[in-house]
């Protein structure tokens, strides 16, 4: 109890000191500092534009790729870092951009794994996530199903392998999913029928649909074909209908 009070008091004192002397400790500023530090920036976009030497409210809103909720407040709305030649792993620090709704890291040279805690710990509130055209490898994390606000997920043109996690079916707001041009395998989970999904150039296949005839199940495996891509929307409605029939 006593420790707690002292600790709270020291936090308050620290907060007072920090908030009056140094805007740079503010959460979203911290977020961008950490991101800049964790990425390699061979072309120098971030080096030239993300200058933390004289931060006041609204400073970060002029950084390239940073969109704020209000131009005079250091609160990141979207981060659009597409096509900047960035290298390294998925950036750290994003958990401090607590109001961020969109993250676009597409068309860079990022590699390594998509973090296993991407949604619960890092970018929980994003509605759009674009990691396409990088060199991300390994699996799509199960935790992707915890980004419950996600509308659009773009993972195409990476080196992702393993199967598409069933947890994606928890994403009730998801309207578009693109995982084309990866090395994914296994069954495609049953997703919201209205979703526009693109599985081109993987080795995935649809759920086996089971039809009952005279009480004998006929198992009808559907493999992804070119023709199938063209009519994906219609087919996934079909899958949904069949699955709800068995619910
Ligand atoms: C940044 O996020 C971490 C982890 O959530 C937290 O402990 C830390 O206090 C945050 N920093 C700021 C300046 O908000
Ligand atoms: C950052 O801005 C300060 C002035 O606020 C300037 O002196 C410094 O050269 C800038 N740094 C870079 C890398 O542009
Ligand atoms: C990505 O990085 C590799 C070296 O790691 C380099 O050879 C390649 O040219 C880079 N590609 C792009 C598009 O920047
Ligand atoms: C993340 O989702 C899984 C189910 O996929 C669930 O068991 C877990 O509790 C969720 N974690 C959080 C922190 O919401
Ligand atoms: C995915 O690829 C990595 C190498 O990048 C490999 O170690 C791992 O076993 C692969 N996983 C699956 C499920 O194929
Ligand atoms: C699909 O969209 C239609 C209207 O476009 C809507 O009525 C229906 O509830 C949606 N279904 C799901 C599962 O979201
Ligand atoms: C699927 O995605 C790939 C890669 O983004 C794209 O080239 C292709 O046109 C898409 N296919 C459909 C049917 O949208």
TrEMBL record:
Annotated signal peptide: 1-24
Superkingdom to which the source organism belongs: Eukaryota
Keyword Glycoprotein among record annotations: yes
Domain (Leucine-rich repeat-containing N-terminal plant-type) ranges: 27-69
Molecular-function GO terms, alphabetical: ATP binding; receptor serine/threonine kinase binding
Any one of the GO CC terms: membrane
Pfam families: LRR_1, LRR_8, LRRNT_2
Intracellular or extracellular location(s): Membrane
Major localization class: membrane
Keywords: ATP-binding, Glycoprotein, Leucine-rich repeat, Membrane, Nucleotide-binding, Receptor, Repeat, Signal
UniProt key word Disulfide bond: no
Species this protein is from: Colocasia esculenta
Protein name: Leucine-rich repeat-containing N-terminal plant-type domain-containing protein
């Amino acid at each position: 109890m006593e420790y707690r009070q002292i600790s709270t008091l020291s936090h308050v004192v620290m907060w007072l000191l920090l908030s009056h002397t140094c805007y740079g400790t503010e959460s979203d500023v911290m977020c961008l500092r950490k991101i800049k530090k964790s990425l390699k920036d061979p072309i120098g976009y971030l080096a030239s534009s993300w200058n933390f030497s004289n931060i006041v409210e609204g400073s970060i809103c002029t950084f390239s790729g940073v969109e704020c909720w209000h131009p005079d407040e250091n609160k990141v709305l979207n981060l659009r870092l597409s096509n900047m030649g960035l290298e390294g792993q998925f950036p750290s620090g994003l958990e401090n951009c607590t109001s961020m709704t969109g993250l676009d890291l597409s068309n860079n040279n990022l590699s390594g794994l998509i973090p296993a805690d991407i949604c619960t710990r890092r970018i929980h509130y994003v509605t759009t996530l674009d990691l396409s055209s990088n060199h991300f490898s390994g699996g799509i994390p199960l935790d992707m199903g915890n980004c419950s606000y996600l509308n659009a997920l773009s993972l195409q043109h990476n080196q992702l392998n393993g199967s598409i996690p069933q947890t994606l079916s928890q994403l009730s707001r998801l309207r578009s999913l693109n995982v084309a041009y990866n090395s994914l395998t296994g069954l495609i989970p049953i997703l919201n029928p209205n979703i526009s999904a693109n599985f081109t150039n993987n080795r995935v296949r649809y759920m086996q649909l089971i039809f009952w005839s005279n009480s004998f199940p006929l198992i009808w495996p559907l493999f992804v074909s070119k023709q199938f891509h063209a009519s994906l929307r219609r087919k996934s409605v079909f899958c949904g209908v069949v699955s709800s029939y068995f619910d």
